[in-house]
Amino acid sequence: MKKDIHPQYNRCKVTCISCGNTFETGSTLKEIKVDTCSKCHSFYTGKIGFSANAGRVDKFNKRLDKASKK
After folding, report:
1. How many whole angstroms separate alpha carbon 31 and alpha carbon 21?
2. Per-residue pLDDT of the chain (70 residues; tens, 9 = 90+)
3. Which helix (H) or strand (E) holds 24?
4. Which domains does the chain have, with CATH numbers?
5. Residue 13 contacts by C-beta under 8 Å, 6 or more apart in sequence?
6. What is the pTM of this model?
7. Quick one: CA torsion of 17, 19, 20, 24, rounded to 10 degrees?
């Protein structure tokens, strides 16, 4: 690698705004703030909001029944 052309790569503190979780990683930045992390994201925690999806499925099934009756 050529000298003095690459950015400084150092340890970086990542902070989640939603839950306050912090962890370290490597980056050219000194600090990173993220909206969601693996501790609070619904995909990783298993607390996915199926209630919102259930309403959409019921609405679709009602339309399907109406269309099949015609």
Report:
1. 13
2. 688 898 899 999 999 988 889 999 999 999 999 988 888 877 777 776 555 556 778 888 888 888 888 6
3. strand 22-27
4. 10-69 (4.10.80.400)
5. 22, 23, 24, 30, 31, 32
6. 0.54
7. -90
